[in-house]
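Input record (one chain):
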Amino acid sequence: MTLDINHFWLLATAMLSGVFWLLAYIFIIYRGFKDQSYGMPVVALCGNLAWEIIFGLGIETGCPASWASCPATVIQARNFIWMLFDFVILYTVLKYGRKYFTHPIVKKYFTWIVLGGIVVALLVIYTCIQEFWIQNQWNVVVNGQVPDFLPLKIQGGSYYTGFGLNFIMSLLFITMLISRGNVDGQSFYIALNKWLGSLAAYAFMLADGIQTPVVNVLYVFVFLFDVIYIWLVVRRCKLQGINPWRRA
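The corresponding structure, as predicted from the sequence alone:
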């Protein structure tokens, strides 16, 4: 019964994070086309899309070894759906993003810089998963033994790298909003669903016991930055005479 309850909470929180972040993507895409802008910071998009290619195409597993009953197909499908929507966000970045950059080299080679950034991010994330290990606090059995450490390749690689990316993304959303000085491509509902998706992802880690010190520290800052971002979006909307609750 304990295993069934734990499986329920793991699956529920994994799917909730999927729903909330998917809603954030949908609102980002909508506002991108509506405002002829883009709503995800370019660097964050490069890392995000690279992560989704790795775990959405099944290059690496999105199931931690500590979750023995993990429905790998369902988790991969969630990541694959994120990837499809992120490709649409990529389109908005390539279509509308060049105007936000003034350096002539960046403007001239903007498309190649963005695509190159995705390749770089993919290689960095993939090699980190292959190289780094984590303490085996779950007593996962590997080849009949309980090793002291587990490779990220089989234990939480998607969640550790994902939370690192989430930390960067949360900071970059604030930076993008401040540097633009307006809410082009942004809305309260993007900010809210990003915050809720991060909350659900951390709840998943609590259910699986993945909340090691580094995860806890990252989430504290993700939570803080996301709340600040929500407040800044609402404040900027009001300064521009926009009703934040009616701006989808």
